[in-house]
Inverse folding.
């Protein structure tokens, strides 16, 4: 490469076909593009064909969990925009709090069903252990997020939960840094930090699932390719 | 061939598996609308819980004897908060450890609370304007020796056992209590006016969001726990996973709450730390299921998967 750099397509190395793989190009950006191209092409992100066994009801739970999370986030945004005291003084605010409340209940019901479904299907097989682990982290982060939500309700329930929970958190030595009696600290964590962490983890979890596909059923294991290929319409 | 093709070949992985058309966006859209409909119906019919928060004002009005008893105990440093230990005080009353493992002590004091000063003397000192009797009582108390203060408070605390409410004032049998009855009477008046709720939040800043002190003060009395008892929220009632009224609470904390109901946790003085330790281990176990022999094999041994993929197995046998 010259000191002045390349002059568009007129100089230096030719661009890769389609400009999508960044083949042979140096640098972090090109490396990231190659990685994304290789691991997550659009046909995997938005598939139009899936194995027939994905028709089982157990696969619905993950999607419904995400659907519930959408309404948790939407109703949470409205509550955050209108202020922490709004829902105590306004009927409309109380209705939005109810949407938030029941969305959270739905979110947990379907997340637990999804978790059990994946456990009984041993969803971690064939190189999917990281997907399982991110899912468990998501479950645990969701519990802490919901816990901080209960702490910032500004009613008797939040007072009682804070006073009782403090002893467990204090016993770990974290009470001085994660003070459940401090509304301001819990509110910031609940409406900002944990939702961002939760959303990023959900995106990562979906990417993991999409990039590797769903696991084959137990009892019908994957046998490495020996050259013989079945003509079942599996995409190549 | 693409030199960066992923090692995992999905087509090869699904070899022999029948592929069918699939519409991801349609599925997500239907799920999102479906959940919204369910949530809207539940919200419209069942609403959501919102039991008003407890206040020190309400406490002082509805149970003045309990309020004064608690305040006197705060002044003598005998309450749970006064003797708690880190992160509030240097005491050891609520410090938990497992053998030599004492994370609470290691972390130290970070939310400093001086119960006599923060809950009683400082709020009263801010209410002395125009009240010479209170100012004089405060001076007398502050100028007395610690021994003398202890004698007054011990006698008053004993007398509170037979306290009565006379003309809306807490009355105790005659005795040598020094300025303590005046201090308690004024603090009760201050609390009834709602002033103490505000004064316990006061710091050097205009904006306040830290409710540590008023919550700790409330939790030292019997009134607060009585409210929780009425709502089935105490520890022996699986309180941490319950919600006020007949609403579902944090049901996902059932396992965490379960430990508190059974020995040795139910009788241990370090139950919180023990339960946290057990739950941390169990969470790690859940996280590492794919690598734990036995735990990862249960799905093979108990064939729930035959129910999950029954159509697939049926097609395999054809």
């Amino acid at each position: 490469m010259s000191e002045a750099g390349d002059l568009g397509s007129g100089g230096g190395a030719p661009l890769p076909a389609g400009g999508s793989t960044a083949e042979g190009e140096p640098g972090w950006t090109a490396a990231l593009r190659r990685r994304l191209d290789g691991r997550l092409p659009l046909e995997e992100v938005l598939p139009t064909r899936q194995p027939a066994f994905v028709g089982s009801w157990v696969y619905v739970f993950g999607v419904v969990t995400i659907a519930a999370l959408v309404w948790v986030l939407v109703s949470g945004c409205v509550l955050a925009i209108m202020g922490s005291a709004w829902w105590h003084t306004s009927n409309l605010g109380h209705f939005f709090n109810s949407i938030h409340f029941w969305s959270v209940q739905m979110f947990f019901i379907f997340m637990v069903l999804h978790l059990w479904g994946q456990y009984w299907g041993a969803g971690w097989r064939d190189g999917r252990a990281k997907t399982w682990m991110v899912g468990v982290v998501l479950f645990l982060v969701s519990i802490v997020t919901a816990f901080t939500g209960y702490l910032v309700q500004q009613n008797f329930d939040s007072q009682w939960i804070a006073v009782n929970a403090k002893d467990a958190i204090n016993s770990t030595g974290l009470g001085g840094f994660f003070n459940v009696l401090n509304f301001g600290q819990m509110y910031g964590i609940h409406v900002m930090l944990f939702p961002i962490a939760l959303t990023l983890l959900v995106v990562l979890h979906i990417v993991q699932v999409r990039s590797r596909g769903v696991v084959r059923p137990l009892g019908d294991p994957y046998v490495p390719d020996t050259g013989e290929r079945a003509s079942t319409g599996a995409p190549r | 061939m693409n030199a960066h093709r992923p090692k995992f070949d999905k087509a090869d992985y699904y070899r022999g598996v029948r592929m069918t058309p699939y519409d991801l966006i349609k599925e997500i859209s239907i799920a999102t609308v479906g959940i919204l409909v369910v949530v809207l119906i539940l919200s419209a019919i069942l609403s959501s819980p919102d039991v008003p928060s407890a206040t020190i004002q309400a406490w002082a009005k509805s149970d003045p004897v309990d309020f004064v008893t608690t305040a006197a105990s705060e002044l003598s440093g005998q309450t749970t908060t006064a003797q708690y230990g880190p992160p509030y005080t240097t005491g050891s009353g609520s410090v938990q450890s497992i053998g030599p493992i004492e994370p609470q002590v290691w972390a130290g004091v970070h939310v400093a609370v001086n119960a006599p000063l923060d809950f009683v003397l400082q709020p009263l000192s801010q209410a002395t304007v125009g009240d010479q009797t209170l100012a004089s009582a405060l001076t007398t108390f502050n100028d007395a020796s610690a021994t003398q203060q202890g004698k007054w408070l011990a006698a008053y605390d004993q007398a509170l056992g037979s306290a009565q409410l006379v003309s809306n004032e807490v009355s105790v049998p005659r005795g040598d209590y020094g300025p303590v009855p005046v201090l308690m009477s004024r603090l009760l008046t201050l609390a009834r006016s709602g002033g103490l709720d505000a004064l316990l939040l006061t710091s050097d800043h205009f904006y306040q969001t830290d409710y540590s002190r008023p919550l700790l003060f409330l939790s030292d009395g019997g009134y607060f726990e009585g409210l929780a008892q009425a709502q089935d929220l105490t520890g022996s009632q699986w309180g941490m996973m319950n919600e006020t009224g007949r609403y579902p609470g944090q049901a996902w904390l059932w396992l965490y709450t379960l430990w508190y109901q059974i020995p040795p946790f139910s009788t241990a003085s370090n139950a919180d730390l023990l339960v946290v330790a057990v739950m941390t281990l169990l969470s790690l176990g859940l996280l590492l299921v794919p690598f734990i022999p036995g735990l990862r094999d249960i799905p093979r041994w108990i064939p729930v998967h035959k129910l999950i993929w029954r159509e697939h197995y049926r097609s395999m046998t054809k």
Q: What stands out?
A: Chain B touches chain A through 108 residues (CB under 8 Å). Chain B has 17 helices and three strands. Residues 87 and 139 of chain B are 31 Å apart (CA to CA).
